[in-house]
Design brief:
This protein is mostly helical. The protein has a single domain, classed as 3-Layer(aba) Sandwich (Rossmann fold), CATH 3.40.50. About 55% of the residues lie in helices and about 10% in strands. The chain contains ten helices and four strands, in the order αβααααβαβαααβα. Helix 1 packs across helix 10 (about 155-170). It is globular and about 40 Å long.
Length: about 170
């Protein structure tokens, strides 16, 4: 779910030699190309529009060029939201899912502090975003993940290291 620590992990794994692709950034690029403001409303509306127009795997389709141009053995995809996106990604190789869990309060607090233009600043906006994410199917990849980390009481470094160890065990 938003704010659980996915991007923190992804950013922490990049210096360890993994390519990182953020699916939310792919949507942000489309918003910029349309000369729209990077607001939570515009990003949320566009994410739903792309899925309606191009199918439920549309956001994964946006990152195909980045995947195809990568020379890394491991690509960390930050922000998978549905089983349809996973099916698109499976066309490129072995896909493993790592779910990150955090409490609602932890996630809301983190999102308020993170400072992205689309991060919710009120509980209502936070709940609206959670409901939108649930509506596109985010609970399915979480439930079907190969492994999960509970981001409760972990430091940033501990969270990144836990994810690194899990991913390393998948490729050894």
């Amino acid at each position: 779910m938003p704010g659980a620590g996915k991007s923190t992990i992804a950013e922490g794994l990049e210096p360890k030699g993994y390519d990182v692709i953020n699916m939310g950034n792919a949507v942000r690029e489309v918003v910029k190309k349309r000369n729209l403001e990077l607001t939570r409303l515009n990003l949320g509306k566009l994410m739903l529009e792309l899925r309606d127009k191009n199918g439920p795997g549309a956001i994964a389709e946006l990152i195909k060029p980045q995947i195809e141009s990568s020379i890394a053995n491991v690509i960390v995809i930050d922000g998978v939201r549905s089983n349809d996106e996973i099916q698109v990604l499976r066309k490129f190789g072995n896909v493993k899912l790592l779910a990150i869990h955090a409490s609602t309060d932890t996630r809301f607090d983190f999102l308020q502090k993170r400072g992205r233009s689309d991060d919710p600043q009120t509980k209502d906006h936070f709940e609206e975003r959670d409901n939108r994410e649930l509506g596109v199917g985010i609970s399915n990849p979480i439930a079907l993940s190969d492994y999960a980390i509970s981001n409760i009481g972990l430091t940033k470094d501990e969270l990144i290291e836990a994810a690194f160890k899990i991913i390393q065990s998948w490729i050894e």
